[in-house]
Each structure stands twice: as structure tokens, then as C-alpha cells.
Specification:
By secondary structure, the protein is an alpha/beta fold. It folds into 2 domains: 138 residues, Rossmann fold, CATH 3.40.50; 173 residues, Dihydrodipicolinate Reductase, domain 2, CATH 3.30.360. The chain is built from 9 helices and 15 strands. It has a 9-stranded mixed beta sheet with strand order 14-13-12-11-7-10-9-8-15. Strands 3-2-1-4-5-6 form a 6-stranded parallel beta sheet, with helices on both faces. It is globular, with a radius of gyration of 20 Å. The relative contact order is 0.15.
Amino acid sequence: MTQKKVRWGILSTANIGMQKVIPAIQKSPRSEVVAIASRDYDKAEAAAKTLGIARAHGSYEALLADPDIDVIYNPLPNHLHVPLTVAATKAGKHVLCEKPIAITAAEAEGLRDCAPGKIVLEAFMIRFHPQWLRAREIIRSGELGEIRAINAVFSYFNADPNNVRNMADIGGGGLLDIGCYPVTTGRFLYESEPERVVSLVERDEKFGTDRLASVMMDFGGGRQLNFTCSTQAVGHQRVQVLGTKAKLELIIPYNAPPDERTAITIDAGGPFDGSLARREILPACDQYTEQAEAFAQAVLGNTTLPWGIEDAIASMKVLDAIFESEKTGAWARVARLERPS
């Protein structure tokens, strides 16, 4: 018996889609990529040929109107996430939207205008990777004791003025591009929301974007998260979780290679060089495929997702507070999520 598949349409020929997400979706057992769109039909046609996609559309509107599509993947620049996601749901599609879901929380709240009954998910693929699920399982088990601090670093170097990440007016900058990952790290591993944040931000004089940021987040109860992100530093990433009994570290936490095994280390603190740490090896896994499969299963009604529009808004409220602290130089409270009645 042939399994029913969810039919995907891809909104734009963005690099992340072409290089990582679309090939991963195509590996999902319950997914089929049937169409791709660009404002330039020739680009859409070339992308379709490259990736073996049946149809190309020369406008976003044509893709949304395609009756043979169940799900839209939206990897457009940040300022187009909310309007195109809302439009897609009103056209009868579910939406997997790249992060960050918006530029501000107020903008993200516009997602509440999405058509009812349509699934909208912010594409934090790490939440579907077995190494992250295992890390949270270890934390829940109590092996680390009480979690006191999470330390994270995420950086790369990109000084290209033509790259969207360096265009401040459409949501460029390190905090929105990669700082959102440490924010998600804390919310995912602590399983709660931060109460307040304080930040130190340095901006590029030409681009106006934040190119270096260090942030401290207070999750209450003596729990902290500290992170640094940069768009103009050597490429690096790290996540360490410090408990009262042991430390956990995720090896290559954010860009885990899809064809290589990953690792978690658990270290009880001696010797300090980590030579006696326990090392758990997890099998190779494409986290984008895991995300696509989970989304497809939810669309088919076989499961439900624990995250949706309200979760995405809550994440943006944390980022808003970080930017507020940058302006004031003081702690900023994270606005509580006010759910619509």
C-alpha cells in the first residue's frame, strides 16, 4: 500500500533551501516536493531542473494558488516571513517558515491572522535532531543535577554587502540570524521562558547590523544562559550545560553534518581536561529531514507538534528584549505572552 505524501511547494530559490532544506525534504518518506517559485521564472525553472522538481512558477502568488500543494516552505528574507506565511495559510496551505519568524514580536503577532486550522512552524530544525532530544532527556533524568547555566557560542564571518544578513532594513544582523538559536537553546533545554535579559552589542558602521553580541538571560530560580553570536568572527559553535553534578556538551550543536555521527559528552568535573568524560555517539541524521517528516506527519494528522505560532511569538519577545537592552544599557524584562482570548 502506497503511503500518502504531503506535497510541498518552495517559496523562492534561497540558498538555504537549495543547498540544505529541499534535498532534505525530498528524503522525508511522507514528503514530495512538487513545485518551486521565484519572481524570476528562469531561476525557478533552473532550480526545478537541478533538484528534480516537477513544476516551476514565476511568482509567489502562482505558487500559493497551486491546488496541488499542501505545504509551503518559506525561506524568504526575514521581512517577508509574516506576510507570505499569512497569505499561504489563507490560500489553504500549511507553512514551515524559516527563522526568525519575524523582525519584531509585534510583527510576529500578525501571524494570528493566519487561517484557522493551518499548521505554522518556525523552522528551528535542531529541535528535531536526536542529539538535542537526548540532551534534554539527560537533563530531565537529573544526571546533571540542577541546571545552573548554559553557555553558547555561534559565529561565522560574512562581510558581503550584498548578502541579506548584512541588510539592516530587511532584518539582517547576527541576533536575528543566529542569536535566535541560543535563545531557542535556553527555552528548549530549560523548558521555560527567560524573565529578563541584558546585552552588549557592537554594530557594523557600514551595514548598521549587529555583528557582535553578548547576552545574559535570567530564567529565574538561579538559572542563567550566556551566549555570544557574531557575523564577523571565526566560525565556531558550542553549547555547554552546567549542572550541580555534571556538565553536558553538544558537539557541533547547530550545524550537525547530515552524514556524520554526532556526540554528547557528560563530564562529572574531574579531571578538568575532560579525559574521563562519558561520550555518547548518535547515528548520522539530517535534522532538516527529521523536521520535514515531523511536519508532514502533523499535516497528515498522525501526530501533533508542540510548537506553533504562539511559540514563535514568544521567541521574538526575547529578541525584542535583547534589542531593548542594547538601547538602554540595562536589564530588560521579557514581555509575557498575551494569548488572544
